[in-house]
Design brief:
By secondary structure, this protein is of the alpha+beta class. The protein has one domain (7-121). It contains five helices and five strands. The protein has a three-stranded antiparallel β-sheet. A two-stranded antiparallel ribbon has the order 4-5. Strand 2 and strand 3 (23-28) form a beta hairpin. Helix 1 (29-47) packs across helix 4 (91-108), helix 1 crosses helix 5 (113-121) and helix 2 packs antiparallel against helix 5 (113-121). The protein is elongated and about 75 Å long. The termini are far apart.
Length: 160
């Protein structure tokens, strides 16, 4: 079961506000986008079963933290991955939890922004697919919209 964290997050139009230990902190819009993207990718990695790759990425993100904080973050990854796999937590709840965790880490360690950005830009184990349409006009073999010559289905040379 996921561990409850003593943080609360609130979202605004161009900033996010994070309540940490009785203080209310404002985070700029760009940091909010990076953190929420990273949290979403954490869930994507968990869903694709790439927990080892995720642990490596998170170890880099939390390299500025204390050894205990790093161990707690990696332990939380394992807990959340198991909770997600067993249906004990939703994707939304885990993404929200990691958003708060990453926000608080960013507040304490602003130098971690680049690593969090790398995590936000990670593919999460999924490859992108480009879907389009193709119109083949004329004779010949078409591969990806290009005409690569004629088709020879018998003994003689193609006339295309």
């Amino acid at each position: 079961m996921p561990v409850n964290l003593p943080f609360a997050a609130f979202s605004g139009e161009s900033y996010a506000m994070l309540g940490v230990g009785g203080f209310l902190l404002m985070i700029d819009e760009a940091a909010t986008a990076v953190v929420t993207g990273a949290a979403g990718n954490i869930v994507a990695y968990m869903l694709s079963g790439r927990i080892d790759a995720l642990r490596e990425l998170c170890a880099r993100v939390f390299r500025h933290a204390t050894a205990q904080e790093r161990a707690e973050a990696l332990h939380a990854l394992d807990q959340d991955s198991a909770a997600l796999a067993h249906g004990e937590a939703t994707q939304t709840a885990i993404a929200a939890r990691w958003s708060v965790l990453l926000f608080s880490h960013l507040v304490e360690h602003p130098q971690a922004r680049e690593e969090i950005g790398v995590l936000a830009g990670a593919q999460g184990g999924f490859k992108s697919v480009r879907i389009g349409s193709q119109h083949n006009h004329g004779s010949g073999t078409f591969i990806g919209g290009d005409n690569y010559g004629g088709v020879n289905s018998g003994g003689g040379p193609s006339t295309a």
